[in-house]
Design a protein that fits this description.
Length: 187
Amino acid sequence: MVWILENPVPIWATGAVLGTLAGLVFLTRRTLVPLLVLAGIVGFTLLLALLEQLVVTQREEVERATYQLAAAIEANDLEAVLAFLAPTAKKVRSDAQALLARLQVAKAHVGGTLHVDIDSNGSGSNGSGPEAISRFRALVDAVDRRGGMKIVYYDEVQLHWASQDGRWRVTSYTAKNGGRWAGDRGQ
């Protein structure tokens, strides 16, 4: 049932179909009952659409955090990037510090389709809270500050997230290099 809160398209499509049918019945009969049914369908559709906008699911939180992390990388804002990384993820933090110190990032985008899987048990293996994995094709366009060489990365990335202190933070990542998984960069 959570899917209805993550995508407004089924709500609007169902409301449009049912509203059209109720509207046709009203136009043929021109009585009060079909008009009330039509008003009820419109009202219920608007109520569900409002509910979908107000309720933010864990999957939507991870999606938003993934896009915000990409925006922080594109802005070359090391402090903002480190805010998305778990304090215990030492390798990830050192990779971020080393790469952002060396590269001037021009673009960092979440490409392709972003897939987010939430741990179905509700609590992660580290005991800190729910965990999630976001999978996407990352596009990073940067220039090496030392030699001026242009670097473009466009391949699959998996970010492993854990909910800590009410925020989703990256605990590890795995990136493909030339079509092969380059290995997990964990804690």
